Amino acid sequence: MTAKAACADFLHFFRSWISNPLRVAAIAPSGDSLARIMTSEIAALDGPIIELGPGTGVFTRALLARGVSEADLTLIEYGPEFIAALQARFPSARVLQMDAAQLAEAGIFEGEPVGAVVSGLPLLSMSPAKIAAIVAGAFAYIRPGGAVYQFTYGPRCPVPRPILERLGLEAVRIGGTVRNLPPASVYRISRREPLDLSRERFNYRESDAELDDVAALSRETGG
Ligand SMILES: C[S@@+](CC[C@H](N)C(=O)[O-])C[C@H]1O[C@@H](n2cnc3c(N)ncnc32)[C@H](O)[C@@H]1O
User: Fold this and answer.
1) What is the Å distance from ligand 1's center to 120 Cα?
2) Which DSSP category does 36 fall into?
3) pLDDT 10s digits, 107-118
4) Whose CA is nearest to atom 13 of ligand 1?
5) For residue 101, which atom of ligand 1 is closest to its CA?
6) Which positions ≥6 away from 23 have C-beta within 8 Å?
């Protein structure tokens, strides 16, 4: 991207922030350093991919640089002021102007084909109910092994722990950068592995006998 184009994007973004500070929630687009971390675990084969809150398309460009096909991208942006520029820049991507909290009801894919969701949404300025709707909506389309990538300017994952637990998810910080305005961290949110309680896993004969005792006791007492 040329310096002139970057400057035009900054002004576009800054004006959006002035007119809607809560929705845009940053005075400038994310930097390339943050975009690289956000997309570092994503490859072409992860498509189709959903991006939430693309703004001027910093993460979208980083996804393309990682080899993701533009036709594999669905960009969900609520701000009408970003839509025309996204459509002009990424003509083969699907650009939808909608609230990311409506994802589940919108039926944008059949089943769970999506390998990754990249989110630039300002979760810190949203209610817990809205965050839960967005995250649950994203996982309605994410295939097994897929993940949501979310950045934050805060000190911890912006999806509150009770929401993660209720949805059977876990969050891991995968990196951070001070070369961003403001500095930011990136979290990978994925489905928690089901607990493997098989005997083979523990391979401990004495405890097997104890488990048999507990099972027998439970049967006897009707528990
Ligand atoms: C912090 S900006 C991030 C923009 C871009 N991803 C970046 O990193 O430069 C937040 C973006 O999310 C969009 N947004 C906010 N709330 C949204 C919602 N409920 N649904 C979809 N997009 C939303 C805003 O319009 C804005 O484009």
Assistant:
1) 6
2) H
3) 999 988 999 999
4) 53
5) 19
6) 78, 79, 122, 125
Atom of ligand 1 nearest to the CA of 100: 20
Give the pLDDT band of residue 187 (cuts 50, 70, 90).
very high
Pairwise pLDDT comparison (158 vs 20), residue with the higher score: 158
Q: Model confidence at 124, in pLDDT bands (50, 70, 90)?
A: very high
211 confidence band (pLDDT: 50, 70, 90) = low
Q: Which ligand 1 atom is at minimum distance from the Cα of 151? A: 8
List the domain boundaries for the chain: 3-195
Its pTM stands at: 0.87
Q: Is the pLDDT of residue 202 over 70?
A: no
Q: Which CATH number fits domain 3-195: 1.10.8.420, 3.40.50.150, 3.30.70.330, 3.40.50.2000?
A: 3.40.50.150
Beta-bridged to residue 152, according to DSSP, are 185
The shares of helix, strand and coil residues in the chain, as percent rounded to the nearest 5, are 45, 20, 35
Asked whether 75 lines ligand 1 (CB < 6 A), one says no
> For the chain, where are the alpha helices, taking DSSP H only?
3-19, 21-24, 32-39, 58-65, 80-89, 103-106, 128-139, 161-166, 199-202, 205-220
